[in-house]
């Protein structure tokens, strides 16, 4: 009894050592700024669906469809389910393993003196149980690591959703602005054809030369050649949108219903502070979870170098024949202590590897934070630059239109310098296209800003892959 009491005291003492929580200091990349270098706006960030700020029903429908059908999101959901199953499997280590066994055997032996053959039968039915006492917290650490991997997978899912939403908005903006370019090219073609007819009429009256007509024909052909290219570009953008929404390219069409509608451009939001990205960006949360998981894995690996205690037992019925089953019984219990002595350095190497993985995860986490800050800074700079360029282009376009009016006025009064008209019209065409292109670049910068700022707006999608419908807790 005294020996059993000492064993129990030892087990309780070792159990009290428990699992050691990985000690991670507050990890922030060196040089993380207190504020962004580029100035943001004063309006608050959209609470949920930022793309609704563009005022397009078509865009809203496309984003919602993509969030429900995109293949990247479906892959991320499957990985999240796998991580949830891994977490459930990891919790099984807290419980004993119980198995039911049924055995039937027959033994025949021959007596060497009498030559008599004897047949012996044996039938056993019993329950066998085994339990690993989590003295050093290995099971708890492994389970905690699986929980962190689940959180990382959830961050990956949210990051995939945010990337898909931004990609849909980006593709939609390119499509709409290509429609504007097509509409612009068709209008320019009609104007150039009208001017060609005017030149033909002037030629018939002896007021223009054949060279003027030939040059204007060249302009008409040049402007008209852009239209097939733009139509082809529209189809390619539809193909990309089809993939984003999980549909076949041949069965998808956007229709161009909004090509003449001005898209509302919301005010520039306040980006907040760089430190806030740690909570807003799901990829940063995923990197942080992977770092914590690596720490738990390291603790579990260290625990494997320490002695292990396993409790086992079995109980059941035994008999020499089926008819006698139930008359005999067996019951035994055992405790096994395994102390690592020599393994060729395998356990020590595994610990060193797990420590290296932790350092790797630290670097990955710091990189994700700095990358997020850079993406916000880039988006703010791009939008500010495009805003300035748009203002400059509008002024140049107004001046070019005034120049064209004056050139046309002089030409109609009998001036013979048609080159001034051609040059002015060419400059206007270039500036009109530049204006549309700068507008789409500004919109892409705004989309990139919302993508870079992150958020937690996709709760419905996060719940979609959870067995209990929760979005922020482990299943």
Automatic annotation (TrEMBL):
GO terms for molecular function: efflux transmembrane transporter activity. Pfam families: OEP (PF02321). It comes from the Bacteria. InterPro entries: MdtP/NodT-like, OMP_efflux. Its main location: membrane. Keywords: Lipoprotein, Membrane, Palmitate, Transmembrane, Transmembrane beta strand. One of its GO terms (cellular component) is plasma membrane. It is found in: Cell membrane. It is a lipid-anchor. The keyword Nucleotide-binding does not apply. Belongs to the outer membrane factor (OMF) (TC 1.B.17) family. This is Efflux transporter outer membrane subunit. It comes from Desulfobotulus mexicanus.
